Amino acid sequence: MSVDSQWRFFGGPVLALDGKGRVTVPAKWRDQINEKLGGELVLCKDPAGCLGLYPPPVFNQLADVLMGLTGDDADEWRRLYLGSQNELTIDNSSRILLPPELRRWAGFREEGGSVVFMGVGAYFELWDPNRSEAREAQVIAKGKPEALRNLVLR
Measured between alpha carbons, how far is 21 from 98 in angstroms, rounded to an integer? Predict the structure, then answer.
C-alpha cells in the first residue's frame, strides 16, 4: 500500500539540539508547516532507529494502516508507532521540543548534540548523526536495488 501525499520534503541540514531538547525547524519548511498545518506535527518512533516527524494528515494515513493490521505482531507495530506518538507545535522561536524518552530511544545525547533533520518525501526523519552514518553504510554495503542499477538519467 502506498500513501499519497501533497507533501514533498527532501534533504535537510544537520542542526543543533539545545540543552532542553529543542531543535529548530528548517526555514525552508517552517513557513509551509505553519501556514498549512498551524505549526502542528506528529513525532513518533521509527523502526529504522530514528524519529519520524509527520504532518498530521500523513500520520493519520499511517495510523489508519496500523489500525487495520492483523496478525501476531499487529499490536507490536501499533505500540511502536501509536504508543510513542507525540503531538508537537512549532514555538515562536521556530523550534519543536523532542520529548526526553524519544531523544533517549533515538540515541540523541542528553546535553546538546546534533540532529540530522531529513526530509524523505511525505515526512521527516530525525537522526542521531552517528546512527545515520552507520545506517547509510549498511544500505550501501547491500548494493543498489535493480531499479537504481538500471536507471539512466539524461
Answer: 6
Query: What angle do the packed helices 56-68 and 74-81 form, to 10 degrees?
Result: 160
User: SS3 helix, strand, coil % of the chain, rounded to 5?
Assistant: 35, 25, 40
Q: Are 97 and 32 in contact (CB under 8 A)?
A: no
- The reported pLDDT for the residue numbered 10 is 86
Which stretches of the chain score pLDDT less than 50?
A: 1, 3
Q: What topology is assigned to 9-128 in CATH?
A: Chemotaxis protein chec (3.40.1550)
- Give yes or no for a contact between 54 and 123, defined as CB atoms under 8 angstroms apart: yes
Q: Report pLDDT for 41.
A: 97
Per-domain boundaries in the chain:
9-128
- For 94-107, how does the pLDDT look when each residue is reduced to its tens digit (9 = 90+)? 999 999 999 999 99
The angle at the Cα of 24, spanning 79 to 42, to the nearest 5 degrees, equals 25
